[in-house]
Design goal:
This protein has helices spanning 3-23, 36-44, 87-95, 123-140, 164-167, 169-179, 181-189; strands at residues 27-33, 49-57, 73-80, 105-106, 109-110, 116-120, 147-150, 155-156. The protein is α+β, with helices and mostly antiparallel strands. It has a 6-stranded mixed beta sheet with strand order 7-6-1-3-2-8, sandwiched between helices. Strands 4-5 form a two-stranded antiparallel sheet. Strand 4 (105-106) and strand 5 (109-110) form a beta hairpin. Helix 3 runs parallel beside helix 4 (123-140). It is globular, with a radius of gyration of 16 Å. 34% of the residues are buried.
Length: 192
């Protein structure tokens, strides 16, 4: 099979995968907030979230991989039940699980792949995300580095990255403690 045909088949498969939640009443949202392991773990704990998948968003080349995802950000695609959790609640939850003032990456993970972004899929999502960003700036009395980008093709990460914290608890805990994510989030958010 030639590469163009393979790419076309994969694109159709990805489009079909993103259309399925809408048919069942579920919705999706894409957030980048540093290491996708941490974002996936955080969102899987939120009531109303049905699934969180680690992957890559925001780039233009087809089929990024962990070894080569230049131009992409590590992100998480969240499938949620809007009858149980709203998009606005997810955005607020997202902000409280990142350091939105970090313009160089996220905590110990630095560089373009780890910047914080909300990938918005509609003008309503854009307005909701921008309003939340403004509130966060007021609460933290700081400039918020998180960007809003148009929702684009999301590529799931390799299987060994999926549910990493659950499947590799010791290794994830070593990463999380070494990175200082929880400590940093407490320092940024305190009791807010």
């Amino acid at each position: 099979m030639n590469l163009r045909l393979l790419a076309a088949v994969a694109s159709v498969a990805l489009l079909g995968a993103t259309a399925a939640p809408a048919a069942s009443g579920l919705k999706t949202a894409i957030f980048a907030g540093g290491c996708f392991w941490s974002m996936e773990k955080a969102f899987e704990a939120e009531p109303g979230v049905v699934d969180a998948v680690s992957g890559y968003a925001g780039g233009t080349r087809a089929h990024p991989s962990y070894d080569d995802h230049r131009g992409y950000q590590e992100a998480v695609k969240v499938t949620y039940n809007p009858a149980k959790v709203s998009y606005a609640q997810l955005v607020d939850y997202y902000f409280h699980h990142i350091d939105p003032t970090d313009a160089t990456g996220m905590i110990c993970d630095k560089g373009p792949s780890y910047l914080s972004s909300i990938f918005v899929g509609s003008p309503e999502e854009q307005a909701t995300a921008e309003a939340a960003k403004a509130r966060v700036a007021q609460v933290l009395h700081a400039r918020v580095a998180t960007t809003m980008k148009p929702a684009a093709t999301f590529y799931p990460a390799e299987a060994y990255h999926q549910d990493f914290a659950r499947r590799n608890p010791v290794r994830y805990e070593e990463y999380s403690l070494g990175c200082g994510r929880e400590r940093t989030l407490k320092a940024v958010w305190g009791g807010r």
